[in-house]
Specification:
flat; two-stranded antiparallel ribbon; mainly alpha; 54% helix
Amino acid sequence: MDSAELLGRLNAKSQDFTGLPPGYGGISPADIAGAMAGLPRASQLVLMARWCQYQGLESEIMYHLWNYAVDVSVEFGWPKPPAGKELLRKMSRLAVLENIYPLPCRRCSGKKRVMRREGYAIICPRCTGGGTHTLNNRERCEITGLTYYQWRQWQSRYKVLSNAINYWDNDGLKHVKNQLQN
């Protein structure tokens, strides 16, 4: 059983990925929570939000991501944002929205399949079976308050923030897996 499936057992809804009731197989929710104990807070939050479906963590994740953005901007000498530090907050909010709480696809409503007129279902062509809506650059510009030209300049910096969330997630999954194997 991989660590993502194990983290699903922390969900209050008792999701079970193995076909066994939660707690069987020698691993309980308390074991999984204990395995997360040594992680940095940002990794814990991302794991709880992404894999355990905990709600209400976005503001704390955004706070950690915003602090990371400020540190990285100083370290790498990013130019001063057009809207000051508020742009970094908006970019952090956007990264959390896209990476942790993605919007459902507009065509299939997150079901990953659409019905054809002939009466059979096919994989949704808009989301290619992912079930989520990927924001385009126009929508990202609206959320951040940048013009398209400014967005093109700041897009690579936004990817740094998205990669930070993915790093926290991957680091946390590896840590939990290693703790549970010992």
